[in-house]
Amino acid sequence: MAPLSTAVLTTLLVTTSLAQSTERVWSSVAWILYGDRTPLLSDNPTLTPLGAQQLLSQGTALRNRYLWKSTPVDSDSSGDNIDNNDLNDIAPIHAIERNAINNRQLKAMTTTDTYTLASAMAFFQGLYPPITQAISNATGGLQAATLANGTIINYPLDGYQYPHIQTVSRLFNPNSIYLDGSSHCPSFLQAMMNFSSESTPSSNLSSSSSFYASLYPRIFNSSSLPLNQLDFRQAYNIYDYASYQHTHNPALSDQFAEGELPRLRELASSEIRSRHGNLSLPIRSIAGRTLATQTRSLLLENIRSAGYTNKLNLMFTSFEPFMAFFALAKLDAGASRELFRELPYPGG
Ligand SMILES: *[C@@H]1O[C@H](CO)[C@@H](O)[C@H](O)[C@H]1NC(C)=O
Ligand SMILES: *[C@@H]1O[C@H](CO)[C@@H](O)[C@H](O)[C@H]1NC(C)=O
Ligand SMILES: *[C@@H]1O[C@H](CO)[C@@H](O)[C@H](O)[C@H]1NC(C)=O
Ligand SMILES: *[C@@H]1O[C@H](CO)[C@@H](O)[C@H](O)[C@H]1NC(C)=O
Ligand SMILES: *[C@@H]1O[C@H](CO)[C@@H](O)[C@H](O)[C@H]1NC(C)=O
Ligand SMILES: *[C@@H]1O[C@H](CO)[C@@H](O)[C@H](O)[C@H]1NC(C)=O
């Protein structure tokens, strides 16, 4: 349940105030983490079938919440209150197409990482599943589906639907900062130069070194990580590799002693939180700042179009902006801090 609840809370950050004040949802912005993938240390990290299933479920969950087919809440005087604490509650977006995708109502952005783009596609398979004879004006209406002799033709694969997904390259598209503000930011990288001498990192570095060394012969001897790089500065990459082996490699999964994988995860969360969630310098949390800026812009676009465009906005990205935003918004110090001090789970 942990992965889902993280997703719920992050998805709802931006819809709460809209939904509660008027009980009509005009627009929603969701930040979505890619699913289970092969390790970053591998040649060509790629989404696994498990990862695709995670995203399909997440797309289905958002479909149930935002594209719900019941009476619109605004015409319901019986007090169908939207309780934003539970993704199972419905919050139908006003006048959104329920069955046939209308790309003008949506905005989906992803980085060019193949596993993130594939995650976006899997998510859409759940959000707008295949449907036959969904005659929508957005896809040309009945006329476009019908031949002159009267035969109606469906899209392939029993009515597969084609989402418009914008891929933004970190190298060539300045808008990529809205999905990933830190990885190509010279000032951020500069601020990372003394990372291992900062207070929390240096304490974690020394307290974890013997733990990492003890795992080397069992878990990392066949990885591309040499023993002298197996330390806290690589905590995320180490956890990422270990967690993949634990899930997918029968020879290694029983090499872990109780508590070892959770400790690796805790160290990885600490590394990412220290890098992106240390608020001493504004540049440290840049990934969260750009993500928040874009979120506001997307909602403004919906307002500017009088609710016609940007009904559902989906930002597919990596974990750094999440951790940076959790710190910026002080979620990592609030009532649910345990949840927000951890890395989000795949598909969250
Ligand atoms: C589709 O377009 C036709 C012709 O413009 C219009 O009469 C109809 O109301 C539209 N249907 C929907 C669901 O918007
Ligand atoms: C209509 O035209 C298509 C394409 O030429 C053909 O495959 C189909 O059998 C025709 N349908 C009828 C009812 O003649
Ligand atoms: C890193 O530390 C050195 C020496 O402690 C200092 O001169 C330098 O300004 C620091 N660099 C950054 C980016 O903080
Ligand atoms: C946060 O970053 C500053 C450098 O900007 C560093 O001096 C400080 O030790 C860091 N805080 C923690 C808790 O590591
Ligand atoms: C590496 O770990 C595997 C799995 O435990 C083990 O079978 C193998 O002997 C180890 N190799 C070395 C060089 O330690
Ligand atoms: C990292 O260091 C901080 C400060 O000493 C400590 O509170 C935290 O528990 C450490 N994290 C891990 C995973 O060891």
TrEMBL record:
The keyword Heme does not apply. GO terms for molecular function: phosphatase activity. It comes from Apiosordaria backusii. Gene3D superfamilies: Phosphoglycerate mutase-like. Keywords: Signal. InterPro entries: His_Pase_clade-2, His_PPase_superfam, Histidine_acid_phosphatase. Belongs to the histidine acid phosphatase family. The keyword Lipid metabolism does not apply. Residues 1-19 form the signal peptide. This is Histidine phosphatase superfamily.
